[in-house]
Amino acid sequence: MTNITAATPTGTVPRAQRPGPARRFARRLPMILLLTVLLIIVVYPLIWLFLSSFKTQSEFLNEPFYTLPGSLNLDNYVSAFTTGQMGTYILNSIIAVFPSLIIMLVLGVAAAFALEVMIFKGRGGILLVFLAGIMVPAQMILLPLFTVFFKTGLTGTLWPLIITYVAHGLPLTVFMMATYFRAVPREMFEAATIDGANIYQMFWRVGIPMVRNAILTVGLVQFFFLWNDLLIAVTFINTQELQTIQVGLLNFTGPYGSIQYGPIFAAVCVSVLGTLLIYLFLNQRIMRGLAAGSVKG
Questions:
Q1: Helix pair 123-134, 86-116: axis angle to 10 deg
Q2: CA 23, CA 28: separation in Å to the nearest integer?
Q3: pLDDT confidence bin for 18, thresholds 50/70/90
Q4: Where are the domains of the chain?
Q5: 3-class state of residue 7 by DSSP
Q6: 3-state DSSP call for residue 108?
Q7: 195-250: pLDDT as tens digits
Q8: I want to staple 149 with a disulfide (CB 3.0 to 4.6 A). Which of 119, 154, 207, 274 is the partner?
């Protein structure tokens, strides 16, 4: 007797061989557990920081660190902005960081466009010079820069921070933006040239729109570096009126050097909350910008 078997379409799996819901869940369980552990590692410190900002000084000193605050009052936040002068520190950080970021992006994007789109002799060597600038540690240049700023009379202002931020962040900005411009199809610029566009029109009407997500990504990366900087700020700022937010956090001490834990946790929450909201609001653009430089168009 001849056995008759039902033919199955090519590329399909018979119903009897398909894994059931329980088996599919079992396969995904290790990944789910791993993501859960990573989420707890990331989220728990933020929750602990936020709840600790409501604790009193006696709760920090006399109770375990994992206990909840007795009440959710805003005394620590009020103290951070009145006694701790957090408003002044935030304003100084804004004045120092945002002009530095704008100058850095304008110069970095223009230099990257010139090095990747324009053809001239020696552009490879110039790019290597920018790459070498990334390898210079900031600690090596602080003392020479402090001497220069002191002799030129720039100490006592925020200009040393702005100049140092731009100089230290520009090589990385140029190198990253050059990578993104390299991923832009050359045909786009050739078509613009055929249509009669000059180099400036190609930069503003073709280059910038093609890498706008990358500019946002690089800008946010540099913003986080500058906003959280402590070494450069504490080196060049010698007056409390000009201190940035990271340097100002060092001033939350009481009599005889005792640390005021409640106000300092509140100040850290304010500092973290701003950067966290910026990232949550722009994370999709950041992801698109990161993916743009990884694929050659």
A1: 150
A2: 9
A3: low
A4: 15-52, 75-292
A5: coil
A6: helix
A7: 888 888 888 888 888 888 888 888 988 998 999 898 999 889 888 888 999 888 88
A8: 154
